[in-house]
Amino acid sequence: MNKHDPHEQLNLDELRDETLVVHGDDWVTNDGTVAPAIYYSATFRAQNSAQFAEMAGTSRHPRYYTRYGNPVHERVKKIMAELEGTETALVTGSGMGAIATTLLTLVSAGDHVIAQTRHYMSTAKIMDEMLPRFGVEVTLVEQADILAFEAAIRPNTKLIMVESPANPTLVITDLAAVVELARPRGIIVVADNTFASPINQRPHDLGVDVVIHSATKYLGGHHDLTAGVICTSEELAERIWQTHISIGSVLSPMDAWLLLRGLRTLPLRIERINANALALAKFLEEQPQIERVYYPGLPSHPQHELAKRQMRGFGAVIALAIKGGYEETQRFVSALKLIPNAVSLGGIDSLVVHTAAMWEGVMTEEQMRTAGIPPNYVRLSVGIEHIEDLKADVLQALQAI
Ligand SMILES: Cc1ncc(COP(=O)(O)O)c(C=O)c1O
């Protein structure tokens, strides 16, 4: 340890999230800047041939070739590993890049995977279509039913994929119970933690092996980048990285820099988002035009007790069922003035989508039924705006149905 470098003496594990996101990466590039520099270079110069050999031979080297690593990636990785409590992290060009790379690393022909009936649509496609093409058997289970996970386990079960809360209906998976089933049998558990964020939920603390994020959502937080993050052990990260460099889902240095900037305010934003979403969910429950509100923070959510046990806050996303059908739901969404009709979630701006309209182009009716998406569902992602302005916009749109 260099006693003249105070950063070397910082114990990151002792820092609270608010401090970690600001200072957790301070010394990573050690280049004297306060704001992080963007290393906009695809390749890095070696000082001599011996150093080149060392760079080429080092796994996950941050200054060799940007598909392999980049100094800005390094900063994001450091903060994310600390936030999720894992040994290390990897970054990818999108959340799907992270999910696909992880699954293609960890399973092989002849293996069996257990996943949920409700997953983000592209993850569901990997389970339904891609893995079976490569000779991997997949069983989909109702995620709220832990006995269904147990019943699905086979001698060749290699991996359990969970997503909680699940897109779009906010059903919760009991993460600790899944780990309890998986661990004694040597089954790897992968959790998509996108809908919670590491501020609201830390699956690795409950024993999950790989924690994945679409960093396009809360982590970036401003709807201006796409990125993915994989938080895991050194051993699994090394294996996943080997696939990553072949698949090439690379995060651009600019997007990594934007992600880093987004991370600085993550705890602040999540605090506001949690408060806004809970207040709006309660407000919506009182409106006569609403059939049902689904939000894990509401006592009316069927898994509220479980949500309270494994989450520290309940996030941005509220699912609503509007009284009526497809047409009434379309009218509600169109009448919103402040809240744009746009996909994605977890950013500073509130966003709304009519779930059936979003997915009817890419899912069959059967797939929509399996995923639990009736025609009158709305997904509302609550941002950091003033709560009274959000309430007013929602109210006038409900009255316009
Ligand atoms: C839960 C979840 N996982 C993964 C993804 C995919 O992330 P990306 O769009 O960054 O590829 C999404 C995107 O909406 C998502 O909601």
From TrEMBL:
PANTHER family given in the database record: TRANS-SULFURATION ENZYME FAMILY MEMBER
Keywords: Aminotransferase, Pyridoxal phosphate, Transferase
GO terms under cellular component: cytoplasm
PROSITE patterns, per database record: CYS_MET_METAB_PP (PS00868)
EC number(s) from the headed UniProt entry: 4.4.1.2
Enzymatic class: lyase
Post-translational modification N6-(pyridoxal phosphate)lysine, affected residues: 217
Entry's Gene Ontology BP terms: methionine biosynthetic process; transsulfuration
Top-level taxon: Bacteria
Requisite cofactors: pyridoxal 5'-phosphate
GO molecular function: homocysteine desulfhydrase activity; methionine gamma-lyase activity; pyridoxal phosphate binding; transaminase activity
Listed InterPro entries: Cys/Met-Metab_PyrdxlP-dep_enz, Cys_met_metab_PP, PyrdxlP-dep_Trfase, PyrdxlP-dep_Trfase_major, PyrdxlP-dep_Trfase_small
Catalytic activity: L-methionine + H2O = methanethiol + 2-oxobutanoate + NH4(+); L-homocysteine + H2O = 2-oxobutanoate + hydrogen sulfide + NH4(+) + H(+)
Family: Belongs to the trans-sulfuration enzymes family.
Lineage: Bacteria, Bacillati, Bacillota, Bacilli, Bacillales
CDD domains linked to this entry: CGS_like
Protein name: homocysteine desulfhydrase
Keyword Transferase (UniProt): yes
